[in-house]
Design goal:
It is a single chain. With about 425 residues, this protein is an alpha/beta fold. It folds into 3 domains: about 15-65, Roll (SH3 type barrels), CATH 2.30.30.520; about 85-290, L-asparaginase, N-terminal domain (Rossmann fold, 3-Layer(aba) Sandwich); about 300-420, Rossmann fold (3-Layer(aba) Sandwich). It is about 20% helix and about 25% strand. It is built from 10 helices and 23 strands. It has helices at about 110-115, 145-155, 175-185, 210-220, 310-320, 345-350, 375-380, 390-405, 405-410, 410-420, and strands spanning about 15-20, 25-30, 40-45, 50-55, 60-65, 85-90, 95-100, 105, 125-130, 165-170, 185, 190-195, 225-230, 240-245, 245-250, 260, 265-270, 275, 290, 300-305, 325-330, 355-360, 385. An 8-stranded mixed sheet has the order 9-6-10-12-13-14-17-18, with helices on both faces. Strands 4-3-2-1-5 form a 5-stranded antiparallel sheet, with no helix packed on it. Strand 13 and strand 14 (about 240-245) form a beta hairpin. Helix 2 crosses helix 3 (about 175-185) and helix 3 crosses helix 8 (about 390-405). The longest helix is centred in the middle third of the chain and has 15 residues, at about 145-155. The chain is globular and about 75 Å long. The protein starts with 14 loop residues before the first strand and ends in a 14-residue tail after the last helix.
């Protein structure tokens, strides 16, 4: 975009009125791509962008010159009375600020930049170290990224000057990362808090400030767990601290998108206090945390649906996959010999050839039980490992982790034993509402 339009002296970053024939829009004028020369782009106060055909614009009137903030040197004073924490920034909305010229975001990658936009997290703590291993949307991550985060987290956890760690992350696949860290970090000594933002800081409804304030308090608490901290409701009152293996994103856009499944949260976290709800391991600064990040990437998560042809399993056999987690219906069912496309024979075949098959439920809440109906018993007899109340996403991560251990992967009974061993709250004897 040229620095000025042919109908105004407005420049990108200015707060303007865009006058059309019957309506006037207010917002921040944005730069436009070279490929869209005939378009005027505007960021509305709601946070959404809108485009107009330049021919339809009668005039653009400047209300306020550019709101783009000049870079200022921020001197961050550390309070010796406050505990120190470290942050690992991996991307996501929570680690970004609006650049009004671009209509996009710039990353917050230093304690100074965080203080400028999220001063509330410094009320209780000093953010003394920030590490940025990468900037990625969560859907672009894989197990190698989980391993990087785990290694950095291990280093901070074993630093005696650090009280806890906050990890900022995109929302969509956050629960895969939290499950991975729950398994990768052994002998955990301090809190590891993952947090997020559904809505950017430039929107009035942003959830970023409360999530970070609560995360700061959780990071210096006695909860020595991998936890996800985020809005408990759509209100800005408190957050939940949720087990990393028992949490799932349940809504595309709500601020309280993440819910604990079949388990209680560890705690309610207010900006000024924590109220314990569930059981957790207590901080022990004398412990030394170690990582165990071995992972077999030839694992898959597959949803079973009515009428599905079991020949899909041949693909995984041909591609030499080591394990599959099936999302079965209800108590743990798939089409059996009564169906036109019975899965019984094919499941037996691929397991006889060495593929490990585990089962989780599509219903999310509740527990698998293959003994209630005959088709469940029929599937169990093929050798499937039924994973009780484990979430399917956690089961996928855990299967990759278990099979990554050569000493475990040599024997199916050992694999079953490890998959049904409760390493980090992933299995529950008693289900919570």
């Amino acid at each position: 975009m040229k620095s000025k339009t042919n109908k105004t002296n407005a420049t990108p970053g200015d707060y303007v009125e865009v006058h059309l024939a019957k309506v006037i829009y207010e917002g921040t004028l944005l730069e436009r791509p070279e490929s869209e020369r005939g378009v005027v782009l505007l960021k509305l106060d709601s946070g959404y962008n809108i485009g107009f055909n330049k021919k339809d614009v009668l005039k653009i009137e400047v209300i306020e010159k550019s709101r783009e903030e000049k870079e200022e040197k921020t001197e961050l004073k550390r309070d010796p009375e406050k505990p120190n924490i470290a942050m690992v920034i991996t991307g996501g909305t929570i680690a970004a600020r609006l650049n009004p010229r671009k209509g996009g975001v710039d990353w917050l990658t230093t304690p100074e930049s965080l203080f400028k936009f999220y001063p509330g997290i410094f009320d209780k703590v000093n953010v003394v170290k920030v590490e940025v291993p990468f900037m990625k949307a969560s859907e672009d991550m894989d197990f190698k990224d989980w391993q990087k985060i785990a290694k950095i987290t291990e280093k901070f956890l074993n630093d005696s000057a650090i009280s806890g760690i906050i990890i900022t992350h995109g929302t969509d696949f956050l629960h895969y990362t939290s499950a991975a860290l729950s398994l990768f970090l052994k002998n955990l000594n301090k809190p590891v808090v993952l947090t997020y933002s559904q809505r950017s800081i430039d929107r009035a409804s942003s959830d970023a400030n409360l999530n970070l304030q609560c995360s700061a308090l959780a990071a210096i608490s006695d909860i020595a767990e991998v936890m996800l901290v985020g809005h408990a409701s759509s209100n800005d009152d408190f957050c939940y601290a949720m087990p990393g293996t028992k949490v799932r994103k349940m809504h595309t856009s709500r601020r309280d998108a993440f819910k604990v499944v079949n388990e209680k949260p560890f705690a309610k976290v207010f900006p000024d206090r924590i109220e314990k709800i569930g059981d957790y391991h207590v901080r022990d600064n004398k412990k030394k945390t170690k990582t165990d990040t071995r992972f077999e990437e030839k694992v898959s998560l597959l949803k079973v649906y009515p009428g599905q042809n079991p020949s899909i399993l041949d693909y995984y056999l041909e591609k030499e996959y080591k394990g599959i987690v099936l999302e079965l219906s209800g108590l743990g069912h798939a089409p059996t010999k009564r169906a036109r496309n019975s899965w019984t024979r094919k499941l037996k075949e691929i397991q006889d050839k060495g593929v490990i098959v585990c089962a989780a439920s599509q219903t999310i809440y509740g527990r698998l039980d293959p003994f209630v109906y005959s088709n469940g018993r029929e599937l169990l007899e093929t050798g499937i490992i039924y994973l009780e109340d484990m979430l399917a996403e956690t089961a996928y991560v855990k299967l990759g982790w278990v099979l990554g251990h050569e000493e475990w992967a040599k024997n199916k009974e050992t694999i079953k034993e490890k998959m049904l061993e409760n390493f980090s709250h992933e299995l529950n004897d008693r289900l919570e509402e």
